Amino acid sequence: MKDKIIAKATDMFLKLGFKSVTMDDIACEMCISKKTIYKFFSNKEALIEEATEIVHEKIHTVIDEIIEKDFNAIQENFEIRRLFKEMFQNADTSPVYQLKKHYPEIYGKLLENEIQDCSEMFGKNIRKGIAQELYRSEINIESYIQFYYTLIFSINENTQLESEALKLEMEALEYHTRAMATPKGIIELEKQLLNHKSE
């Protein structure tokens, strides 16, 4: 039952917003009593915390699956961006924006995990791109990792509408890639942008 509650709550939080969904809404949607939810979760914050952990794990599992497909470094980033679009396109407001605004403590914990995971993932992608001669070999990898996650987190923290956040994230990806790309990388980037626009 606990897993079912988390799954339903996560779905509702992402679609309708962490703040607007109440324990009553979740109970009503599941045709169970609110008392049943409180058997597993002491309050709404505890439920949100578990829900965000589940989303975090799900995102990184799917990202790992994309990385295992061994696309080139630039296509890999576009495939990951496509995944985010599919996962969050039904959300009205950005989940990250809502968390930061209404549940800053939960957001702080999530941010710590995300920065560590993203730094590792971005670093691997940049090294892969350099090896494939898609990114310039002389770039300062640590600086570019920091530039990119600062851009992405700033967009998500400050953009209320999820559709707008997704659009800005795509522009940030293009900006990030152009800054690192070799002439060969620019050709691959243009190809990916064309594919993205035709979707």
Automatic annotation (TrEMBL):
Domain HTH tetR-type: from-to ranges: 1-59
DNA-binding found in the keyword field: yes
Segment forming the signal sequence: none
Keywords assigned: DNA-binding
Ranges of the DNA-binding region feature: 22-41
Highest taxon above the source species: Bacteria
Keyword Oxidoreductase among UniProt keywords: no
GO MF: DNA binding
Record-linked Pfam families: TetR_N (PF00440)
Gene3D superfamilies in alphabetical order: Tetracycline Repressor, domain 2
Protein name as catalogued: TetR/AcrR family transcriptional regulator
